[in-house]
Design goal:
It is found in: Secreted. The protein is mainly alpha-helical. It is built from 13 helices and four strands.
Length: about 300
């Protein structure tokens, strides 16, 4: 049965119903698709569990900006899945659909929730390098993040719950050294950081090339500890911690910190919305790429 999905379309803040997204889209043309993706994801994550947060990050970037992501970590997983899908279902399944489903399966493998993925996305033929500048880097204002999300048809609830993906994964120390040593040019650390946590981070991040867990307490568990960390002034990135200091987002942080089931439920709902973002112009001129690294000749 064709499922009508409400999706955000790249024309201001308007929405449209897209008849092409359906849970049964590949039932006839590639019925083994989800099995292929599920098997491949388990194989990759068995060897390297850090690929789960990498895929979530890759998916967010792919859904929010029109710029090539092939140099980012996790793309090798998508390339591998695409190669196997092309063997069994040639010229049928888009890279966008593969990435969306791979992210879902990686989330589940990491202990997160399951959600059903509708299919029928096309791969874009447009890459706008300037849009890479809009990808959050951890030092924006909350207002900037809210405006970015709203421009994609997402809301404040989506912003807070999807930030909860930082319950797993790592960040480079280079992204936060300014918080530790020279916050806003003061020559001092960010005063919002828990003093004990600050001491830990300063020892851990002596070199910008090092990495540190986004969640210092339960770094490998997909849980609500991330939100509890914010309450304890242990948000790694500035944008994480500001979620608890901004009156628009703080109540949601508090709610999720004490409601694990609600976090999982809403994370699935917001990931579904994220995966259904469609750029109107790209969708009109989209294609099924034969190789996810390049547009078709």
């Amino acid at each position: 049965m064709m499922i009508m999905m409400m999706i955000a379309v790249g024309r201001g803040n308007e929405y449209e119903y897209d008849d092409d997204l359906s849970f049964s889209y590949y039932h006839g043309s590639c019925p083994q698709l989800e099995r292929i993706i599920h098997t491949k994801i388990n194989q990759w994550l068995k060897n390297d569990s850090t690929l789960a947060p990498a895929l979530i990050r890759l998916h967010f970037r792919d859904c929010t900006v029109r710029v090539s992501s092939k140099s980012l970590r996790g793309f090798e997983v998508i390339d591998d899945i695409k190669a196997e899908v092309e063997k069994q279902c040639p010229k049928t399944v888009s890279c966008a659909d593969i990435l969306t489903t791979a992210t879902r399966d990686a989330t589940v493998a990491a202990g997160g929730p399951f959600w059903m993925v509708p299919y029928g996305r096309k791969d874009g033929r447009i890459s706008v390098a300037k849009e890479a500048e809009s990808v959050p880097r951890g030092h924006e204002r909350i207002t900037d993040l809210i405006e970015l999300f709203q421009s994609k048809g997402l809301n404040i609830l989506d912003l807070v719950v999807l930030s909860g993906a930082h319950t797993i994964g790592r960040s480079s120390c280079g992204a936060l050294q300014y918080r530790l040593f020279n916050y806003k040019g003061s020559g001092k650390p960010d005063p919002s950081i828990n003093p004990k946590y600050l001491n830990f981070l300063r020892r851990k991040c002596r070199w910008a090339s090092e990495y540190v867990d986004l969640d210092a307490v339960t770094p490998k568990a997909f849980d609500v500890q991330y939100f509890k960390n914010l309450q304890n002034k242990m948000g790694l990135l500035s944008t994480d911690q500001m979620l608890y200091s901004d009156s628009r987002t703080a109540p949601l942080v508090s709610a999720f910190a004490s409601q694990s089931a609600e976090f999982h439920h809403q994370f699935a709902a917001s990931m579904l919305k994220l995966g259904n973002i469609v750029d109107y112009l790209a969708d009109q001129d989209g294609e099924i790429r034969l190789n996810c690294n390049y547009v078709n000749a």
